Amino acid sequence: MIVRAATEDDIEAVVALEQANLGVDAWSPTLVADGIRGGLPTVRYLVAEADGAVVGHAVASIVADIAELQRISVAPEHRRGGVATALLDAVVEAGRAERADRLLLEVREDNHGAQAFYAARGLVEVDRRPRYYTDGSTAVVMRLGLGPACSWS
């Protein structure tokens, strides 16, 4: 498996992952295409590829000292095989390369598996955002220190 920057050839696969895994919170095909084509200057799309097929994707926004993981999605048949870890590692690396001092993300309050995944990789809960998701669900905000300017993880 490799993790690389997404290209126009990946748009269809990323849209399919969004729709299959994120349901009502999936981004539109137009927004995905715009992001992959570079129309959103702070946004980076990464894909995980195995045997020539896109099996996961991550979206990060890096602005000044903050990197934000906006999406991470893995095809069900490739879960628990290191794809999400590889994508998260690539986002952390991109944040550090651009001198971000922290990584932030939101995860659904009821998604205990994702919260445990992030916690095992050093992220800690720092806040909650009520009614954050389309269906009114609360988001848990998690943070990871990336650099020396960040005084806490």
From TrEMBL:
Catalytic activity: N-terminal L-alanyl-[ribosomal protein bS18] + acetyl-CoA = N-terminal N(alpha)-acetyl-L-alanyl-[ribosomal protein bS18] + CoA + H(+)
Domain of life: Bacteria
Domain N-acetyltransferase: 1-147
Keyword Mitochondrion among UniProt keywords: no
Principal subcellular localisation of the protein: cytoplasm
Enzyme class, spelled out: transferase
Keywords tagged on the record: Acyltransferase, Cytoplasm, Ribonucleoprotein, Ribosomal protein, Transferase
Protein's cellular compartments: Cytoplasm
EC number: 2.3.1.266
Keyword RNA-binding: no
One GO cellular component, as annotated: ribosome
Described function: Acetylates the N-terminal alanine of ribosomal protein bS18.
Stated family: Belongs to the acetyltransferase family. RimI subfamily.
PANTHER family: AMINOALKYLPHOSPHONATE N-ACETYLTRANSFERASE-RELATED-RELATED
Protein's UniProt name: [Ribosomal protein bS18]-alanine N-acetyltransferase
Gene (name only): rimI
